[in-house]
Amino acid sequence: MKFAVVLVRPKNPENIGLVARNMKNTGFEKLRLVGVKSIAQKSYVTAVHARDILERARFCPDVSEATADLDITFASTSKTRKNFLSVSLKDAVREMFQFPASTKIGLLFGCERTGLTSDELRSSNFRFMIPQATRQPSYNLASAVLLTVFHIFAHDHFKEVETVREKPLSRQEQEEFIRLILRKLEQNNFIHSTNKRHMTEMIYDLFGRFALTSKDRKLLLALFSKTVSQ
User: Fold this and answer.
1) Which of 25, 44, 96, 124 could join 75 in a cystine, given CB atoms 3.0 to 4.6 angstroms apart?
2) Are 141 and 112 in contact (CB under 8 A)?
3) Which GO cellular component does the record give, naming just one (predicted)?
4) What does the pLDDT look like over 31-67, one tens digit per residue?
5) CA proximity to 149, closest of 130, 172, 126
6) Distance of alpha carbon 215 from the chain centroid
7) How far lies 28's CA from each of 15, 31, 107, 138, in Å?
8) Whole-model pTM?
């Protein structure tokens, strides 16, 4: 698998460095930062031996650009969302290894205070939650990344899983398809002003979990062209 860790609007530079260190310890190399323009010195201090990961980090203005060239994205969330289905971290990792080894996978983590917004979650195929024993609101950002990348690292090294799914379209192609479907539904008044946000989020969630392939897109476009126009 080809993984990229995506930090969305991180506020604490020490956390960025700790994330890089956690990635280095578990064999991850690609770090993308959304809403960050440069690496602060405090990040290099906490990164210790992972300076190279920070130096190669990619800066992106928004989540869509950060995930456009990826195939599948998994977003961490500390709470259930009304219109987005969430699975456990264990199930999410199992799902990752159902795809071919060439699949480019993004791991999305929101900012320390608010996490990922609903709009940002639309750029993910799957959402996962990390279990915890207390009512503490959420894990520290660096801790959440460590738990996630370690589970992936351990799964990859100690258990072989047969690939059963085809490689999906890129996230950019998936989102373009979803927007096309939304436009068709709006044109036929399936989506209107009173249900637009609710329906939009549900459709992003549904088609995201499909992890659409080129064959899926061709079939669904044919179906929508026939049924929606009637």
Assistant:
1) 124
2) yes
3) cytosol
4) 999 999 999 999 999 999 999 999 999 999 999 999 9
5) 130
6) 22
7) 16, 8, 11, 23
8) 0.84
